[in-house]
Amino acid sequence: MGDPTGRKGEDGEGSGPGDEADLSARLRRLDTRLGDARTRRDRDARAGSRAASDMSGLGKALRFSAEFIAGIFAGTGIGWALDQVAGTSPWGMIVGLVLGFAAGMLNIMRAAGELNRRPRSGTSPGEEAERPGSDDRTR
C-alpha cells in the first residue's frame, strides 16, 4: 500500500535523478521567493521606521510650544500663590513669570537635545555611542 501523502519511503524507493532535479528547482523557486519577501520587508521597514522616527515639523513645534507654555504657567502660578500667601502682589507673580519663561526656554533646549540625541534609523547603537557629542556625561 502506498503512502497517502505522496512522499517516498525511507528506503529510497522512487528517488532518482528526476526527483533531485525537481527538488533543486523547488529550492531555487523558494529561495527566489524568500529573497523577494525579505527585500519587500526591509523596504517597508525602512519606510515605516523613517516615518515613525522622523518627527514632523508640526510635531516638533507643538512639543516645543507645550514645553514653553507649561514652564510659563508653572512659574506664574507659583508666583501668584506666593503673592497670596505673602501679600506682595504683583511682585511674586512678575518674578514667577520671569522664572517660568527661563524654565520654559530650558525645557525647549532639553527637548531639542533629546530629539538630536535619538539614534537615526541608519545607525547602530554602537555607532551612536562613538559619534562626537553623544556623551552621556552631558545630561
TrEMBL record:
Pfam families in UniProt: ATPase_gene1
Keyword Ion transport: yes
GO process terms (BP): proton transmembrane transport
Keyword Cytoplasm included in the entry's annotation: no
Start and end residues of each stretch annotated as Disordered: 1-53, 115-139
GO CC terms of this entry: proton-transporting ATP synthase complex
Signal peptide (residue range): none
Species classification: Bacteria, Pseudomonadati, Pseudomonadota, Alphaproteobacteria, Hyphomicrobiales
UniProt keyword list: Hydrogen ion transport, Ion transport, Membrane, Transmembrane, Transmembrane helix, Transport
Protein role: A possible function for this protein is to guide the assembly of the membrane sector of the ATPase enzyme complex.
Designated name of the protein: ATP synthase protein I
Top-level taxon of the source organism: Bacteria
Family note: Belongs to the bacterial AtpI family.
Biased composition (Basic and acidic residues): 1-11, 23-47, 128-139
InterPro entries xref list: Atp1_alphaprobac, ATPase_put
Transmembrane segment boundaries: 64-82, 88-108
Sections of the chain in a coiled coil: none
